[in-house]
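Hi W.,

Here's what went into the run:
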Amino acid sequence: MTGPVLDICGLTVDFRGDAGPVHAVRDLSLQVAAGEVVGIVGESGSGKSVTMLAAMGLLDSRRTVISADRLAVDGQDVLTLAPRALADLRGPVVSFVFQDPLTALNPLLTVGRQITEGLRRHRGLTRTAARALAVDLLGQVGIPEPALRLRQFPHQLSGGMRQRVMIAIALAVDPKLLIADEPTTALDVTVQAEIVRLVQSIQSARGMAMVWVTHDLALLARLAHRVVVMYAGRVVEDAPVARLYSAPAHPYTAALLASGSRIDAPFDPSEPIPGAPPDPRLAVPGCSFAPRCARVQASCHSERPILTDLGQGQRAACWNPVQVPA
Amino acid sequence: MIAFILKRFAQGLLVLIGVSFATFIVAHLSGDPVELMARENATLQDKQDLREFLGLDRPLGAQYLSFVTGALQGDLGYSFVQRAPVTDLIAERLPATLLLAAAGFLLALAIAIPLGILSALKHNTGWDIAITSVAMIGQAAPGFWIGLMLVVLFAVEWQLLPVSGSGTPAHLVLPALTLALQSSARLTRLVRASVLEVLSADYIRTARSKGLRERTVLFIHAFRGAMIPVVTMAGLELAELVSGAFITETIFAWPGVGRLAVNAVAQRDFPVIQGVVLLAAVFFVVINFLVDLLYVVIDPRVRLR
Amino acid sequence: MTQVSVSTFLRRNVIGLIGLTILSVAAALALFAPWIAPHPPSQVNLTARLLPPFWVEGGQISYPLGTDNVGRDVLSRIIYGAQVSLSVGGGAVVIGAFVGSLIGILAGYFGGWVDAVLSFVINVQLSFPFTLLAIFLLATFGGGFLSVVIVVALATWVNYARVVRGQVMSVTHQDYVEAARSVGVPVAQILWRYILPNILSPIIVVASFSMAQAILTEAALSFLGVGVSGTRPSWGMMLNDGRTYLQNAWWMTAMPGIATALTVLAGNLCGDWLQDRTDPRLRR
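Here's what came out:
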């Protein structure tokens, strides 16, 4: 299978609001190759989570309008798939790890049940076989006494353990792509580091593709092959991780990097850059970042920049990118 | 968990004590029973004798205590109007009331749960608006009026069911339906709200992201969570039904405790009133306690730590 | 603030508007009864007994909703009945709100044993079969307008108390109130400045619902014969009158019931709408 595991082209997601549509994602294109780890970084409201949820049809169809030139997962067109077929993809092909494990896990079902139900649904295992596999999975994610944990309920575990359980659930059916939506944001700093290490080792062992959505640039430095920066529902920069950190092209990326204290210290996401993102209900001519940009030019306000290739696998949507060394 | 149960039990007990005290006080505030019972030409001495005989000359505290100890042993006093022990009078009619309340309750659940789920799943569509509107009207109309209208429709116009009385299953239909319609109006809206809230929970999204069939997502994940508040409400509704069935009993001449109570009020038969009020309150407290116990069983968050 | 079109405003607030409209109509009926009602409500006319509504065969347009067993016009009695229902409802709401809120404030602000005692009283009342108690009290101590209002208020004060208590508790534990208390700001001032503004909107929401509940309770009490007595017709009383004639004069029961249901519905609609509008969780 040589094609990309995730192939998004021209994705637009609008929410039906009371006073008109809210443009959460605008004309977004993104590819994830097999085995590749892509980080998506952006402020709250940049559309990063929405993009991933839309990709797997997990948004409320009554309140959202999704359109795309191409939205394919493992070669299959998500937009035209029947619901049953789409559900078949979730788990074996793509699986999710969500941000808050306390609310993302069903408080009324045992941990074991929540792991085995996916196994039984997709692999048709018997209850005993599924349970044995679940014990093994819990061990793989570093949970002590896995057999005991199977019978426990989510509220009986600590935050870190709950997130490990979520990861176990996501890995259960051997997905080709794991989408992690801010999985460490709700955890303590020390636990964060452990989870990141765990995910890294699993990813390299299984060679699966991964998308890691976060607002923490520092975290991606160790984890990702490539980083995509989103702003106001669009991709503004897309580059290999080393390149992005050493020579960011888009002024927004540069500002993010500059305002974070140090690359290896926890990134402070609160008000790094003066100003605020544009109202998603309004359609903005020109570049959405222009009002806050230090390198703004006249053309920035009238014409929207498109993603252009700047060489060395780096693309940015900017009329006046930061001068990149060759 | 044990602590939770014990605490609830103690609370229930306290409330019962409070209720028994309040009942006692109210019954005694309402006037001197001796005056009502004595004959026309009774002398003061006669009345005093009667008072002593009935133990009404003792201090209030003592009277209350004997009332409570008697009640605990199943003796709720004696009705002079009907010339029978209150306990017997109530015991005769209790099965009928319980039957009616149970029938009404089950019917209410059978109506409310499917309709509530349906309107939640199809929320903001025509189905939802229709069901919610009917539920709102059902909540707004006086229960007894609904009962009367049902009589007009089914018993008078269409002659399908008897107007009143008891004895055959057909007699049970209209009164049970009357009770059920009122309760189900409230319950439907509650079920709907509960299901909607659960459906927007994160763990439903997780369940879908695992590729589970929609059927599984709904029945295993969503409804289980939604039913917890419904169980509490349903328990309260049952308690209300038991103590509130008496208007319905009156309309349909159903031989239950409610009718006994209403007649007792008209006849100033205080011991009966006292007994019925106490009984209704006991039911209420007991049912609430049972609902709490049920909570322990169905919600693991309460059960474990 | 973004501009909202008329159609959006209507769509969002249609529920409240319907409720308010119905309530206004009811209030208008009550206020202007002598000018609106086609006949005096107590006017007996034995030649026009048991007439059906005008659209049924045998009905007359001069008695649009039919007449009762002594020839009184049902429509006029309903119009005048609005006076009783709304005034009992209104009175009960005022008394209930005042007493209930007071108790809620006491319980919520002082906490501790004050709260324990008051909460206990609330629980005891909730366990009582209220309507039975109401009938008993009214039968024993006599009916009359004031008694009925008090009894109905007794039924509803608990709702206010619980909501206000919760709200007061959460406000009292906020930092700025704790600070004010520790600095020595007098209790009265704290209540006035901080607590009161925060409990007004929940009280109004509860008031709307309890108005509806009060009207229902009054109807039930009148139906059982212990409501507001006298020559003034009340919807519940009409329902009681209609019982004996259920088989041959269904309109005697149907009409006042519809009137009651509409008014109660209006109260509930307003309550729902107010709740939506004032719920801080839903504030955009």
